[in-house]
Design a protein that fits this description.
It is a single chain. The chain is an alpha+beta fold. The chain has 3 helices and 4 strands.
């Protein structure tokens, strides 16, 4: 799924932790691993951003959150870490 720039919520520098996400250990570990894989693919000058789809899309898409690599203002890669 292509993530629109409007879904970007905040730039992230540090990997997520279970305390930040208030999740049990195993799901939090999976999220950290996905984030680390994505970060490893980021190049010089790329930014990592968190994203979440707006509530008016939840009925159609469910609630999605994840991380994206932004290069020159465009999302070049993303990973969805939760979908409800």
């Amino acid at each position: 799924m292509k993530i629109p720039n409007e879904w970007l919520t905040q730039r992230v520098e540090n990997r997520p932790t279970s305390q930040h996400r208030d999740l049990p250990a195993m799901p939090a570990l999976r999220i950290r691993r996905e984030w680390e894989k994505l970060k490893a693919q980021a190049g010089e000058g790329d930014e990592l951003w968190a994203f979440a789809n707006p509530s008016n899309t939840w009925k159609k898409l469910g609630k999605l959150t994840g991380y994206a690599i932004v290069r020159n203002g465009k999302i070049v890669q993303s990973v969805t870490v939760t979908d409800q």
